[in-house]
Amino acid sequence: MTTRRPTIRDVARSAGVSVTTVSHTFTGNGTVAPATQQRVRTAAQDLGYRPDVIAQGLRRNRLGVIALVARQLDTLHPELLYDVDYFARFAGAAAVASLAEGLGLMLVSDPTGPRAAGAALASDGFIVTEPVTDDPLVAMLTSAGIPFVTVGETPGAPLAPGSPPHVDIESGRLTTLALDHLWESGARRIALVTGTDRNEWNLRSAAVYRRWARYRRITPSMVHVPEHLDDEGGRRAAATLLASGPAPDGIYALTSNHALGAVEVLTDQGLRVPDDVRIVAGSDAESLRAAHPPISSIDLQPDELARRAVELLAARLDGRPVPDHAQHRVGRLVVRASSAPPAPQP
Amino acid sequence: MTTRRPTIRDVARSAGVSVTTVSHTFTGNGTVAPATQQRVRTAAQDLGYRPDVIAQGLRRNRLGVIALVARQLDTLHPELLYDVDYFARFAGAAAVASLAEGLGLMLVSDPTGPRAAGAALASDGFIVTEPVTDDPLVAMLTSAGIPFVTVGETPGAPLAPGSPPHVDIESGRLTTLALDHLWESGARRIALVTGTDRNEWNLRSAAVYRRWARYRRITPSMVHVPEHLDDEGGRRAAATLLASGPAPDGIYALTSNHALGAVEVLTDQGLRVPDDVRIVAGSDAESLRAAHPPISSIDLQPDELARRAVELLAARLDGRPVPDHAQHRVGRLVVRASSAPPAPQP
DNA sequence: ATGAAAGCGCTAACAC
DNA sequence: GTGTTAGCGCTTTCAT
Questions:
Q1: Is the CB of B36 within 7 Å of strand D?
Q2: Between the CA of residue A275 and those of A281, A333, A339, B96, what are the distances in Å?
Q3: What CATH number should be reported for the domain whose range is B171-300+333-339?
Q4: Which of A293, B45, B113, B201 is deepest in the core (most CB within 10 A)?
Q5: In chain A, where the domains are located
Q6: Is A103's CB within 8 Å of B119's CB?
Q7: How far is CA A268 from CA A181, A260, A273, B241, in A?
Q8: Distance, in angstroms, between B125 CA and closest chain A CA?
Q9: Does B70 touch chain A (CB under 8 A)?
């Protein structure tokens, strides 16, 4: 504490070599005789020397840290944090993937905001999850020339060559998957409940749903509820659906907590799930698995999305060719009791 | 992109002042005439100048980033991530609190490991959640003189003056709270299910439970299952409890997923919750709320713990007096159906 | 194979 | 109130 930490100079002196040599033995640049290397290593060890990452960062103009902008953190009210499972799995997997790339993962809220922590800008690149229409952050990063990738497309962004690189969340395919599944499990009056954030997931799902409804020749019925309302939002959505027109016999709710809240109301109203109403959530969560009945969902596989995002960003940072993830689809349908066709009575 | 970003020098030249003046106008040090400040600000604006955080960091020997070591990330298998709710809420709240202190929050795995990302060490300080007995990370940080705070005490650490500063998780009080609640709801053969990590939560709960059992004159019955086994761990624990001696009529399971798994097995065995067995989980989660029946729990209030940890660390970093959190207790019992006394029949 | 020296962008004495 | 200048700890030509 009292004695300052050793620098490259101390090691050089102690090993009787120049700082260049020390630098080289650690970075692997240049050439250093094995014997010398050994001496340097020993000296460093003895002194407890660790290269100063900040100094390296200044020199290399690269800190080894990437930032994750979680829109769920944009608010000052962490109690509003929604989609906890998705966030946790994404952040966790992103951190692990980053470490595998030798990078640190910083959690930041929107750095375009007035309260932007300076540190946020120290990162080498950004991962932006679920950017929204004409996202100001995307605009800022683009104009500042800061490398970034998004998870999900940026709605409204020009699809020109300059379109920001992103990890495909396959919202179109997954929406169809969920809707077809509801159809096949017998539903014919299928409603959609979306969140209100203007991100790809909400917007594309709605668009696909409209097309799908036309194709199936059913009357579309949609409700939009803010994500952060959680169960309460789901309850309201269900109430709205029940109040307006014939009760749906299938619901696709994009947010897990909305699905949960909806089931509550339906059950309270004496409707049986899945016999009277089938339901599928558009995002998986523990609570869906534990619910009664367990609720089917689209597992977006945030772990995989995070891994891809980190890989993609890391590749861009290194100027490496970007990995092609298009081979393997991501996201899958998890069928649980809430949408399972009634088991044949033995 | 092609043109390098402007430095303090460029701004100085463009504003017709010295670099010192520019530095001062931005840091607030020294004194700069308002008029000059204005000129500098304008010039900076025009050039799109942002102080380089890394250079500042090098100079000040402080980056403005703190690291959160989440033990759940120590593994390379993010799918093993357990206690997702706790992690997400903690990380989210920590990130928000950090931002409020003008700090960034970095997620890192154990930096003592061989694969330590260099960047991890760039942080100004560390938050270590749930350190384990004789934690090597705690030892490393201590000997390296790196500021840190832990959430929960470090078991086995000397309680000497040098004992690492920590946020009190009140494990003793909360364990008693849970056990007394089970007792009051009618349970008399109360078993404890803990995880196997050697952290304060597991160790102190076990110790308190033993004392409490003696005091209540009941025969202690404990099972330890690894946290990452999740539901399966809970199932095993319940099976073990049922196989050995008289079936418990009350279970306190420290991990939420263990509680969930246990309820599954109990129900399968024809036992009714809470009528035959009352159950309380030692960590809250969405899935407990959505479970059937909803499961009571100790809400550790990770949001609050995170906030306190960040505040404590930030204060230490600035040499400010550390906030005294002892005033307000943290953690509370959330009573749900799994341990509610049967409602009086109308 | 090794070393001297010039910075990376910024801050903080210390002059004026 | 403003400017000069010496570094922070490291990497990297370019000599030797």
A1: yes
A2: 17, 20, 8, 43
A3: 3.40.50.2300
A4: B201
A5: 65-168+303-323, 171-300+333-339
A6: yes
A7: 25, 12, 11, 36
A8: 14
A9: yes
